[in-house]
Design goal:
Layout (H helix, E strand, L loop, with lengths): L15 E2 L5 E2 L6 E2 L13 E2 L5 E2 L5 E3 L17 E2 L3 E2 L6 E5 L3 E5 L4 E3 L1
Antiparallel strand pairs: 1-2, 2-3, 4-5, 6-7, 6-11, 8-9, 9-10
Length: 113
């Protein structure tokens, strides 16, 4: 069974073949040729401390103790953070850390696991 790529417009994973070379998305109605899909030049590119490109859903490891405002203890070096989300701004990783809750991290203080 062949792997059908997600819709380039709405990122839905429920695309299907229309019988020819084209694929169709049932959620937004977008029709595309998978061989002609190109990368978005305005896409957000976030790199970790080792210059690896991060994507949504990655797991990262904190490289140094990071103080947390309002908490008596820092996020310890070596803490594994699962299922990150990339965002614009100074703190370009949105995540949930056990014991701390939702917070933003800077990509220069993490490495890809």
């Amino acid at each position: 069974m062949s792997e059908i790529p997600p819709c380039p417009q709405c990122k839905s994973e429920y695309g299907y073949s229309t019988g020819g070379d084209l694929l169709m998305c049932p959620e937004c109605g977008h029709e595309w040729n998978p061989t002609e899909v190109e990368e978005d030049p305005n896409a957000l590119i976030v790199k970790d401390a080792n210059d690896n490109t991060l994507v949504d859903g990655d797991t990262v490891v904190v490289l140094k103790n990071l103080p947390v405002k309002g908490s008596p203890q820092p996020v310890k070096a070596g803490t594994k953070v699962k299922n990150i989300r990339l965002s614009d701004g100074d703190h370009n990783i949105a995540c949930k850390i056990d014991g701390f809750g939702a917070m933003g991290l800077k990509s220069e203080f993490v490495r890809k696991a």
